[in-house]
Write a structure and sequence with these properties.
Radius of gyration: 26 Å
Number of helices: 7
Number of strands: 7
Strand content: 15-25%
Helix content: 25-40%
Structural class: alpha+beta
Largest sheet: 5 strands, antiparallel
Strand order of the largest sheet: 4-5-3-7-6
Distance between the termini: 98 Å
């Protein structure tokens, strides 16, 4: 007990603002069998974590996009129409589960974790064809996926950028070279435990996840600028590289008779 008191006193001496707290008691409604219990919430006074104007907004990233990001993009790329400004169309989050056929409890736990992270229940992805080499049968469950749109998409993207990525171990920024040439960006996480919705006590086998952000941008440069303004932590001193697309060869390129005739 003396050790705890000394630790508390040393903490308050280092952080004097933490000693000034305001407590609020929330009593349950009458008629509840737990009417004798009360919930006490304490908040430190003098410490502002988020501005009040930002904290009152329900969809902070969505509001910031329409109020701040759209005018900046319209000015930089000289768009004549408001509909030309790129935006995030959808976000697809998928997770592969190799032992889903042998472990039904693990599949259910992965579905519940994905639902907590994204705010939407995922669907099971199944194999279209049987592959004997990998011991995969037709219609066998291989993973889970969820497609986010609208306000749920902006809420997940806000938590992914500001909470998930900074809590990644040895995080040095995301790669700016993961664009596909059409303005879509993909990034992977090795562990889902970076999201605060999942408690460490309830975590089982560590699983990763892939996040595919689909935008309406025509080029990778426009998509890079859009995500950078939204707060995506790209690595410093780098930008998207141009994707060199080779011309697709048709059947007559592989026909030896046609080549022989052209040589003659």
């Amino acid at each position: 007990m003396a050790l705890l008191q000394s630790s508390a006193s040393s903490f308050i001496s280092h952080f004097p603002a933490a000693s000034l707290v305001k407590s609020v008691r929330i009593s349950p409604p009458s008629g509840n069998r737990h009417s004798g219990l009360s919930v006490k919430a304490e908040a430190a006074s003098g410490i502002v974590l988020v501005e009040k104007s930002e904290a009152d907004k329900v969809n902070r990233l969505k509001t910031s996009y329409y109020e701040k990001i759209v005018p900046l993009l319209k000015e930089e790329f000289n768009y004549t129409n408001l509909h030309q400004v790129p935006k995030v169309d959808k976000i697809v989050v998928n997770c592969g589960i190799g032992d889903a056929a042998q472990n039904n409890k693990g599949l259910d736990a992965a579905i519940n974790d994905m639902a907590l992270i994204t705010g939407q229940r995922p669907v099971k992805t199944k194999a279209k064809n049987a592959i004997a080499t990998f011991k995969i049968r037709e219609n066998q469950t291989l993973g889970i996926a969820v497609t986010l749109r609208g306000s749920v998409m902006y809420a997940f993207l806000d938590r992914f950028i500001n909470l998930g990525l900074p809590r990644t171990r040895d995080f040095q920024g995301v790669s700016p070279n993961s664009f596909d040439g059409h303005g879509n960006y993909s990034v992977g996480l090795k562990e889902q435990s970076v999201f605060p919705e999942l408690s460490y006590d309830a975590l089982g086998k560590p699983r990763g996840m892939d996040v595919c952000i689909t935008t309406t941008a025509q080029t990778d440069k426009e998509a890079y600028k859009l995500l950078a303004l939204m707060g995506m932590p790209f690595r410093e001193g780098s930008g998207p590289t141009a994707v060199v697309r080779r011309k697709k060869l048709k059947s007559h390129h592989f026909n030896t008779k046609t080549k022989a005739k052209s040589r003659k």
